[in-house]
Structures are given as structure tokens and as C-alpha cells.
Specification:
Elements lengths: L2 E5 L16 H12 L4 E3 L31 H6 L5 H5 L12 H16 L8 H9 L1 H16 L10 H4 L3 H10 L1 H27 L3 E6 L8 H5 L14 E5 L9 E6 L3 H6 L3 H13 L2 E4 L7 E6 L9 E4 L3 H11 L4 E3 L7 H10 L3 E4 L21 E4 L8 H7 L2 H11 L9 H11 L4 E5 H5 L30 H13 L4
Parallel strand pairs: 1-2, 1-12, 2-3, 3-6, 6-9, 10-11, 11-12
Antiparallel strand pairs: 4-5, 4-7, 7-8
Helix pairs in contact: 6-9, 12-13
């Protein structure tokens, strides 16, 4: 079946209180997807933002299971009597509707959510009790981790007192008792996130919209996952990594990239029948209708860099779990609705793993136009079983990308699309049309590319930390017009994707 969708992170939605969230605007966007004839809404990871390098990346989360407190809708808390409008209006979340101010959010969101928590009662709340009971396998460790993190002044868990760092049972029980209120606060926030997210997902599904989620292949080093289950990772007896994730030197980075995520102890995972991965995937399949696995290549082979290195020169490739992981997952969960992020240089073994799983890989229009004029990303080379994007969250917007092309590559695009006469302000539509017309079963377009926005609307520049503007862009109210949704519907119908 030919379908199409739009990529828009929850954080990039317009909303009243500093960041996109599970608010009326999210429901409005579902309605806009329907009006545009779309079937899919792709988002970025929903986990609580970590603060490694100050970059607030959703790919460096404090938990692979928890929801982001930023996304809890304050207006819903007002409706439920936990907050007053004037209390929310008095908070300074920043004054730029197009950019997220994470420094203010990190402080002010916590204050206002704690006020709501002070008015929350669990008495006779069967739904809350159900949530706590059915999510205990991750919730209790996460809440304790966040409480201990606050108690330690925000330090990473490896810098906590030894009894907490190494999870001495007696010390943890004492901490649960001493930090009970703080633990209950984090349970409350997670319950509110779950309640609001389930409501939005139900509304989307009832109206024929499926949500594509995103699961980072790795977890953050400073996370509840690494702290609570160190046996899952390549750690020493002192809970330090022996090696970390990254990628080798290439044309984009002459020294390679050091991501610093802990690497998995795949031998342990194999011995347990990949039980943790099954828990993780089952949880994500409850959150989303389709799951995109980021850095799929790492499940075939992963790049291992000695811990402490600041470049990737001493890194080397190691074998990943391959089909053993997918056999175990499908045995436990059945056939899963997955997308494999297989971008970049692919070895024959990665290609074979993708073929054997049968999951669709990804194609990116922006990657198609290079000096070779023979890229695998050129649409005439696609197979049906793939997902085509004009660009991803890691790419520049179409309009900005086109302006950055050298003369040869720009001229090649004009020959390929026969669009030399198209006005510059309308070029982005030609590339959208190219993706829509392809044989790919699914076509996903970032909302910025439908709007023809420039570099100011880019979501992420890989490798840039807090000095950049990553993860900050937001839509303005009114940018998605009836005319735009009508134009998208017409193109969707034209290419058989309704």
C-alpha cells in the first residue's frame, strides 16, 4: 500500500508554554494530517532530555522507557484542577515562539509540575494504580534514579556515593524511604505523560493516523538504564565503560565521532534471550504504531572506541547480534512494524541483515545528488519496500540544502528533475514531488520542506553541542494553512498515496 506522512517532532509544535507538548495543537496537527490526506505522523524520541554537552538531545535520554516531562500539557493540568491559569502565565518560558529556551524550561517546568503534584491525590485513582503496577519494571528504578540525581546536585550516577553508585541493597532501601516524596513526584509526572500521550495516540489512531516513533539504538551513559542494569553493558567491575560508541573518521569528520554511549554486552543479552530488548521493544510498540530503529547498522557491526578517547582513531568494528536479536524479538512479540535506519556506508553484511529481516530501509532525496551522478539514493533505483524522505532531522531543509549545492550538483538536479525554469522559492516542491512519485511504499516529508523554510528551521546539525541551535526550532501558529493542507492532499492523491 502506498502511503505518506509528515515528520514533525512533538517539541516543534506551537504551544503556549515554551515547547511543543501533548496539547490542543497536537490534536490540531492530527486534524491537519487528515485534511492533507496523510496516514503517518513521524516524531523523534519521547524520552526525558539528557543534558550531556548541554545539547538537550532526545537521543541522549535519562531513560529509554520514561516520557519527557517537557511534553506534559500544562493546560490539561489546569483542566484537572491541579494548576491555575495565572500560575502558568506567570512563568517565564522564553519569549521567542520559534525557539525553545531549554535553560528556562529545565528550571521553570520543574517548579510548575511540582506545584501540580502538591495538589494531586492518588486516592481512588484506579488508573494511576494500574499505571504504576504495569510499568514497575522500569518506573521504580527511573524514579529512584531521578531522586538520587537531584539529591546529588545533578551529578552523573558514576559520581554518586559508592553505596548508591553500586546499588547496595540496604542503601537503596534507605534512599527509597528518605526520598519517598521525590520518588512519588516523578511517578506523578510519568503518569501524566502516559495519560496525555495515550489520549493523543488514541485520537490519532481513531482518525486513521499512525504514529512512527524513534528508538535510539544506544542508551545514554548517564541514564537510569545504565545505572540500574550495568550487566547489560560493557562495564568494568567499577561500573566504568571499557569502550563507547561512535563512528570512524570519514569525509564528514576527519577524527571520527565519539558518541560516548555505553556499548552492549551482547553475550549477556544472548544468554538472557534478549529479555531487556524485548521489554524495550514491547514498550515502544505500545507507545507507537511503527518504530524506527536508529543506527540499524550497529546491530550487524558496531564501532568500539576505548573509553576516554576524544577521537575515533583507535576504534575498531565488532560483530553485533544480527538476526539472533530479531529471531528472539519476533518469537516473543510477533512480526513487528519497524523501519531500519540504514543510511550511510553499508557493508554487504548489513545489507544482508536488512534483507533477512524484511524491514524497510530508508532513502533520502538530499543524498541522491552528488558528484557521481550514480547515487543509490536516486529514486529510479528504489525498491518498493523502503521509506523515502526528502531529508531527516539530521539534514538541512530542502531550500537551504539546494542553495548550498555546488554548481555541478545543482545542474545535475535540474537535469534530473527538468526544473531549471522553476523559481527558486518553489524548488522544494519539485523534490517533494520526486519523493511522492517514487515507488517507495512510504513517503515521509519534514514539515519544513512543505513550507519551503530555510536553515533557521533545521532541527539538528550532528556533532554540534550547546554552541549550536540543535533541537530548538518550533512552528509558528498559523504556518500550516488550509491552502497548504489542500496542496499536500492534491499531490498525495496524484501519486496514489491517499
Amino acid at each position: 500500500m502506498r502511503e505518506s506522512g509528515i515528520l514533525l517532532p512533538i517539541s516543534a509544535l506551537p504551544s503556549k508554554y515554551g515547547i511543543g507538548c501533548i496539547s490542543k495543537e497536537a490534536y490540531d496537527f492530527v486534524d491537519q494530517l487528515i485534511a492533507a490526506g496523510q496516514k503517518k505522523w513521524q516524531i523523534l524520541p519521547l524520552g526525558p532530555n539528557g543534558h550531556e554537552k548541554g545539547c538537550d538531545s532526545p537521543y541522549q535520554s535519562y531513560s529509554t522507557f520514561a516520557g519527557n516531562p517537557y511534553f506534559v500539557n500544562l493546560e490539561a493540568l489546569i483542566e484537572w484542577g491541579l494548576l491555575k491559569p495565572e500560575e502558568c502565565d506567570a512563568v517565564d518560558f522564553g519569549d521567542n515562539e520559534n525557539l525553545i529556551d531549554y535553560d528556562k524550561l529545565d528550571k521553570e517546568r520543574d517548579i510548575i509540575l511540582r506545584l501540580a503534584f502538591s495538589r494531586f491525590s492518588t486516592d481512588w485513582n484506579d488508573e494511576y494504580a494500574w499505571f504504576v503496577q504495569n510499568n514497575g519494571f522500569w518506573l521504580e528504578d527511573y524514579c529512584l534514579y531521578m531522586a538520587l540525581k537531584k539529591e546529588s546536585g545533578g551529578l552523573a550516577w558514576t559520581e554518586w556515593e559508592e553505596k548508591y553508585r553500586d546499588r547496595h541493597l540496604g542503601a537503596l532501601q534507605e534512599a527509597r524511604e528518605a526520598l519517598d516524596e521525590e520518588i512519588r513526584y516523578h511517578r506523578f509526572v510519568q503518569y501524566m505523560f502516559w495519560k496525555e500521550w495515550n489520549g493523543l495516540k488514541h485520537y490519532a489512531n481513531e482518525n486513521g493516523i499512525q504514529i512512527i516513533g524513534d528508538i535510539p539504538i544506544y542508551v545514554a551513559f548517564d541514564s537510569a538504564d545504565a545505572w540500574s542494569r550495568p550487566m547489560l553493558f560493557q562495564f568494568t567491575e567499577n561500573n566504568e565503560p571499557t569502550a563507547v560508541s561512535g563512528c570512524p573518521p570519514d569525509g564528514f569528520s576527519p577524527t571520527g565521532q565519539v558518541w560516548n554511549n555505553p556499548l552492549y554486552n551482547w553475550e549477556y543479552h544472548l544468554q538472557t534471550g534478549f529479555a531487556w530488548w524485548a521489554e524495550r521493544m514491547a514498550h515502544n510498540l505500545r507507545l507507537y504504531d511503527v518504530v524506527r530503529i536508529d543506527h540499524f547498522r550497529g546491530l550487524d557491526e558496531y564501532f568500539s572506541i576505548p573509553y576516554g578517547d576524544t577521537d575515533a582513531f583507535r576504534g575498531h568494528w565488532e560483530k553485533g547480534p544480527g538476526m539472533a536479536l530479531f529471531h528472539a524479538l519476533e518469537e516473543k512479540l510477533g512480526r513487528m512494524n519497524l523501519i531500519a535506519e540504514d543510511l550511510g556506508y553499508l557493508t554487504e553484511s548489513v545489507k544482508e541483515l536488512l534483507r533477512e529481516t524484511g524491514y524497510p530501509g530508508m532513502k533520502v532525496i538530499e543524498f541522491a545528488f552528488d558528484g557521481s551522478e550514480d547515487s543509490v539514493y536516486l529514486p529510479h533505483k528504489y525498491e518498493h519496500n523502503c521509506v523515502v524522505y526528502t531529508g531527516t532531522h539530521d539534514n538541512d531543509t530542502l531550500q537551504s540544502w539546494y542553495l548550498s549545492l555546488n554548481d555541478h550538483d545543482r545542474e545535475f538536479t535540474q537535469r534530473y528533475l527538468n526544473n531549471a525554469a522553476t523559481p527558486l522559492a518553489e524548488k522544494h516542491w519539485d523534490f517533494v514531488r520526486l519523493a511522492m512519485a517514487s515507488v517507495a511504499d512510504l513517503c515521509v516529508i519534514p514539515i519544513q520542506d512543505y513550507l519551503g523554510l530555510g536553515n533557521e528551521a533545521r532541527i539538528n546539525v550532528p556533532g554540534v553541542g550547546k554552541e549550536g541551535s540543535n533541537w530548538k526550532w518550533r512552528l509558528s501558529r498559523g504556518m500550516i494553512t488550509e491552502k497548504l493542507t489542500g496542496d499536500i492532499w492534491q499531490m498525495t492523491k496524484l501519486y496514489g498515496r491517499l
